[in-house]
Amino acid sequence: MAVETFGGHVNLNQLGNVFAQDAKTLVIEPWDKGTLKDIEKAIMKSNIGVMPVSDGRIIRLNFPPLTEERRNDLVKVIHRYGEDAKVAIRNIRRDANEHIKKLEKDKAISEDEKNELRKKFRSLLTNIL
Q: What is the pTM (predicted TM-score) of this model?
């Protein structure tokens, strides 16, 4: 989860310790207490269905017991994240292919180099996924 703080987006795990206090409670302990409000705002904005509880130095996320309805809601959220990731990957692939085609059209690379770049890019995406 990205948190908007320090004038940009920073991953939550780079702002503090994140750990499970027990089976139903996740605790976030920011290293800089000034980021506490930013982290709370990001959690609320993420729409994961859990309200952050802050005591001024740590944030607790208390997850309720899973009901059938809640399980279905979580499945929908997971599917949405999965679809967003697929779209992002398709956009990256399209942009890279367009860039490679432009390089070939501008005579900056040969057809062999174009094929090699596409092969390397496919390999890179495969390794990431």
A: 0.53
Kindly report the CA angle at 56 between 54 and 61, in degrees rounded to 5?
Answer: 20
Residue type, 36: L
Cα separations in angstroms, 85 against 7, 52, 77, 88, 125: 25, 25, 12, 5, 13
Measured distance CA(65)–CA(77) in Å, rounded: 17
d(CA 12, CA 20): 15
Side by side, which strands form the sheet with 25-30?
Answer: 16-22, 25-30, 59-62, 52-54
- CA dist 29 to 15, 52, 126, Å? 8, 12, 35
123: its two tokens: 């390999």
Dihedral sign for Cα 80, 49, 20, 22, please: negative
What does the chain come to in residues? 129
Q: Give the tens place of pLDDT for each residue, 14-23.
A: 999 999 999 8
CA distance 70 to 21: 21
Q: How far apart are CA 80 and CA 72, in angstroms?
A: 12
